[in-house]
Design a protein that fits this description.
- The chain is mostly helical and 309 residues long.
- It folds into two domains: 57 residues, no CATH class; 233 residues, MetI-like fold (Orthogonal Bundle), CATH 1.10.3720.10.
- The protein contains 13 helices and no strands.
- The two termini are 53 Å apart.
Length: 309
């Protein structure tokens, strides 16, 4: 009886408006997928497939024999002194440059939020490095920090001996200064935008209640800024891994020990066609990045959950 009722229901024609609605939805979905397909194909071809190819290469002995060796490439890589040096330098650079990029940009944003003279000029000054090409930046840093450069010439009258800054213990500080010079302006604008979106009535209420400027910043502004702090930190972390471009143009394939980064190691492995070490290093780098970003998301979710929504 139930089967007969079901067959009868299937035979009953749908009302015209329902049939037209179904066709319209199907047509809209088809159009949406047609517009999305180039982007989906691009992401698949240039990101997802290469990512799995890199993982595959990191688990085989060579691209030709393709014999599965599981974690042997990773174990050998972790014992490689060049990789250890590159990983140590990259981590130390990011650990120094990223917090400075976030804290200094936040401090500048808070400062420029006040009614200070020449505020527009200061904003323009910190944004101007974004318009300078990389080649020009490298040239400026070579002129300033070369052994016969402007900095040593300026320090000579004070009896300070000339230093080849890019081949000394100060080399990483020179690159940190370059990184901050290039990125502070953009981070500052992001923080200024977030500060302007904080509800004014909450701040005014806190002032009426007698809260100090520090209390307002720590208890109110910093809470509302937590999503922007997360975004700026992740952006600065990604940019800290991209500083290889400037370092490479300044120092070449094999720089002073303190500037030998993971990208140098991977670039040199690519030149030697050692795809196993290259792929294993890329996988380790990706895993570390995912872990760091996940930790940042957890911290932000706990600290800023009371102001979400």
């Amino acid at each position: 009886m139930i089967h007969k009722l079901g067959d009868w229901v299937k035979k009953v024609p749908l009302p015209r408006f329902l049939r037209e609605s179904g066709r319209e939805n199907g047509r809209e979905k088809g159009i949406s997928w047609a517009f999305l397909s180039p982007s989906l194909f691009g992401v698949l071809a240039f990101f997802i497939v290469p990512f799995f190819v890199v993982i595959f290469y990191s688990l085989v002995d060579s691209p030709i024999r393709k014999q599965f060796v599981f974690l042997d490439n990773f174990i050998g890589l972790l014992k490689n002194t060049a990789f250890q040096t590159a990983a140590k330098n990259t981590l130390s650079f990011s650990a120094l440059a990223v917090p400075l990029a976030v804290l200094l940009a936040l401090g500048l944003a808070v400062l420029l939020e006040q009614r200070i003279p020449l505020r527009s000029q200061f904003r323009t000054f910190f944004l101007s490095p974004m318009m300078v090409p990389v080649a020009s930046v490298v040239l400026i840093w070579q002129v300033v920090f070369h052994y016969n450069g402007a900095l040593n010439a300026g320090l000579a009258p004070f009896g300070i001996e000339a230093v080849d800054w890019l081949k000394s213990g100060y080399s990483q500080l020179v690159i940190v200064a370059l990184f901050l010079w290039k990125n502070l302006g953009y981070n500052m604008i992001l923080f200024m935008s977030a500060l302007s979106n904080i509800p004014r009535e909450i701040i005014e209420m806190a002032r009426v209640e007698g809260a100090s400027a520090f209390t307002i910043f720590w208890r109110i502004k910093l809470r509302f800024l937590s999503p922007t702090i997360l975004f700026v930190t992740i952006l600065s972390l990604i940019n800290s891994f991209k500083v290889f471009r400037e370092v490479y143009l300044l120092t070449g394939d094999y720089p002073y020990g303190g500037l030998y980064l993971l990208q140098h190691f991977m670039n040199n492995m690519f030149n030697k066609l050692d795809y196993q070490k290259l792929s294993a290093a890329a996988v380790i780098m990706a895993v570390v990045m995912v872990i760091l970003i996940a930790v940042l998301f957890l911290i932000e979710s706990r600290y800023g959950k009371d102001v979400e929504g």
